[in-house]
Amino acid sequence: MGYHGGRPGQTRPGGRTARVRAAVLRAAGDALAEHGVDALDLADVARRAEVGKTTVYRRWGTVPALVADLLVDMAEQSSPRADTGTLLGDLTANARLVQSTLVDPRQGSLFKAVIAAATCDDRTAEALHGFYAARIGEWAPCVEKAVDRGELAPGTDAREVIRAVSAPLYYRLLASGDPLDEAAADRAAAAAAAGARAGVYVRSAD
């Protein structure tokens, strides 16, 4: 989905450019989790990362560009897709990964900050959409394999099934405030799997 492979600005594995990028993105994530996007400042990020301000301004230039690169890095670093051999097993693994990320003190706060900023900043929104496109693309083969195994009907929209797994979890995080525990993750996975088996996500013929 476009986020895998070589990273922007990386000259060689373990090179100085890669180390600087890692330090800056770690500092940016810390600052985002603490204060949100509105208070994110490139000079402060440079200070936290212990790199020169000129380096940060030259490499990223703006806060939205830094947030976008942070999301690219998060997509690259996310855990790989599960392959348990069953649709429910794979969707449960996906749901538990989402749930554990969202309740993590740092990651959960970071996602809340980025989602809030995306509502009023087009570049942040574009970066966020790209992050989720990459994650959905990573996990969609779980559903495609279930179709191949005969668990699901041909024509099942794999991306819609994956979206259905995480949507209730984000609702709890951002809207309802209901407990976001492992049981909620397992129910979300079971509901998505049941809907998929019932043909809810089969694409209609145009």
UniProtKB/TrEMBL annotation:
Q: Name one Pfam family in it.
A: TetR_C_11
| Keywords, ordered alphabetically | DNA-binding, Transcription, Transcription regulation
Q: What is this protein called?
A: TetR family transcriptional regulator
Q: Where are the transmembrane segments?
A: none
- The residue ranges marked as DNA-binding region are 41-60
Q: Say which domain of life the source belongs to.
A: Bacteria
Gene Ontology MF annotations: DNA-binding transcription factor activity; transcription cis-regulatory region binding
Q: Which SUPFAM superfamilies does the record match to this protein?
A: Homeodomain-like, Tetracyclin repressor-like, C-terminal domain
Q: Does the keyword Transmembrane apply?
A: no
The UniProt record lists the HTH tetR-type domain at 18-78
